Amino acid sequence: MKIQIRKIAAVLALGSLAVLAGCGGGSDDIGQIIGTSSPQYRTVHANPFISNVDFAVNGTVKVTNVGFKNVSNYFGIDSTATKATVSNSGSTTPLASANFSPVNGHRYTGLAIVGANGSATSLALIDDPYNKSILSDKARVRTFNASYNAPNVDVYVTAPNADISTTGPTMGGAAYGAASPVSTQDSIYVDGGTYQIRVTTAGTKTVIFASQPFNLANNADWLITTLPAGGVGAVTPNAIRVLVAQANGASQTASELPAQ
């Protein structure tokens, strides 16, 4: 039913979309929005304790020799039972794997993260159903906690220096190795504007990371990933930094948000 309604909306909106395209509108894939295009997959190297890695899908290496904080472009995968793996670069022995059944219209992210024991590698997976309205120009935002030294966090996306003492988190209760909103739920939607990100320990107002103000554009698609801080800070409780993966169609950029 959802796909049928979105297809009808797509037909009705074609004229509007043409206008948007002519005016520099969003880069969203229409097939993705209406749920007809092939599943899309991207990878993130979020483990500071391992060197460069390769990411593979069903035994075929798709992303090669990438370093820490690297985010790949989206690429199409088949909507069949899938095994994703991450290996040391050049190795055929996986460090970790994840099995899933991709669905047309969904976007997937595989993140190589520190394992539960603090040294091995795990491959975490986010299933994004991508339920964006075909006429929406709002930004899509999701967070992922890859900071094993900050195992549960809340994330606030607010106007710069806004008082968070009486407000709830924008994305709450992100456990280590998990997303908020959780995998299989859609991202949150916010208007473009100037914002600040603050990360707190879950259930408290104790800020462990505050970003400088930044601009979030309409139609942006952000994955906000918390990472352990570098050097000695990598093992210091609640010492974190924040990496933002920004999708522009299939193209990806990744940048670390400057701390306040």
Automatic annotation (TrEMBL):
<keyword id="KW-0732">Signal</keyword>
<protein>
    <submittedName>
        <fullName>DUF4397 domain-containing protein</fullName>
    </submittedName>
</protein>
<feature type="domain" description="DUF4397">
    <location>
        <begin position="42"/>
        <end position="156"/>
    </location>
</feature>
<dbReference type="InterPro" id="IPR025510">
    <property type="entry name" value="DUF4397"/>
</dbReference>
<feature type="signal peptide">
    <location>
        <begin position="1"/>
        <end position="21"/>
    </location>
</feature>
<dbReference type="Pfam" id="PF14344">
    <property type="entry name" value="DUF4397"/>
</dbReference>
